[in-house]
Write a structure and sequence with these properties.
It is a single chain. By secondary structure, this protein is an all-alpha fold. It folds into two domains: 7-74, no CATH class; 77-235, no CATH class. 57% of the residues lie in helices and 0% in strands. The protein contains twelve helices and no strands. It starts with 7 loop residues before the first helix and ends in an 11-residue tail after the last helix. 35% of the residues are buried. This is Orphan protein.
Length: 236
């Protein structure tokens, strides 16, 4: 789930974590996590996720271990790019919430929402799931994450426009949720950068987006940038 090198150092980090887990001593587990650098911590968290996925009866145990380690000693930035599908986000959500790490970024300035919305292997993104989180606790923290711009100046939703567009209509519940996320992002006098529209238009060309004004994609982008839909039909 992350780009963690499979080297002896990371294998040792995982072996030490496994020994600590077998001791059933949470303080020892967190101490073993603390002793690692970011790469070692990322390898340990990746191990927790993979074991939880393969041993469903232990899922909650490993989810709690990951959460306790992250709350105590932080989320390694190398894990963020791997939080790009619903299974991984679900596993780490308690940790992200408890550590208030929604807006944490990696070296590219991406939050987990940038990674999640840009992942073309999960299309459409789970907009309704994120909207549901927005309606409950820590909703303002998550709303702030929607407004974070990465090193290319793109918000998470703009990463969806640039990297994950296609001509398929979104299911109604996902479309409704997407508009709710747009509203949340643009609340508080936050306006989209009109200069980013050129990047989105370029993505529309590369993804061969149908330029029929009735195309749902055009409606979404026109609504986001608050422009006439006919502007998007002129990609010369």
């Amino acid at each position: 789930m992350t780009q963690v090198p499979n080297n002896n150092s990371n294998e040792q980090a995982v072996a030490e974590l496994l020994l600590a887990i077998r001791s059933k001593d949470l303080a020892k587990i967190c101490a073993v996590y603390q002793q690692q650098n970011d790469l070692g911590r990322a390898a340990q968290l990746k191990f927790c996720f993979e074991i939880a996925e393969s041993q469903t009866t232990r899922y909650a145990d490993y989810q709690n271990i990951a959460a306790q380690c992250i709350v105590a000693h932080g989320l390694p930035s190398g894990i963020i790019a791997g939080l790009n599908n619903s299974d991984r986000v679900n596993f780490f959500m308690p940790a992200l919430q408890a550590a208030d790490a929604f807006s944490q970024t990696n070296h590219q300035g991406n939050t987990f929402l940038h990674a999640l919305f840009a992942n073309a292997e999960q299309s459409p993104p789970p907009f309704n799931f994120i909207r549901s989180l927005l309606l409950f606790e820590r909703n303002e923290s998550l709303a702030k994450t929607l407004r974070v711009r990465n090193q290319h100046g793109l918000t998470p939703l703009e990463c969806y426009f640039v990297y994950n567009l296609n001509n398929k209509d979104l299911p109604e519940h996902e479309l409704t949720a997407l508009f709710a996320l747009i509203e949340a992002e643009q609340a508080g006098n936050t306006s989209p950068l009109s200069s980013n529209l050129s990047h989105v238009k370029g993505a529309m060309k590369s993804h061969k987006i149908n330029l029929d004004p009735k195309n749902q994609v055009l409606l979404i982008i026109a609504s986001y940038y608050q422009i006439d839909i006919n502007v998007l039909c002129q990609l010369h």
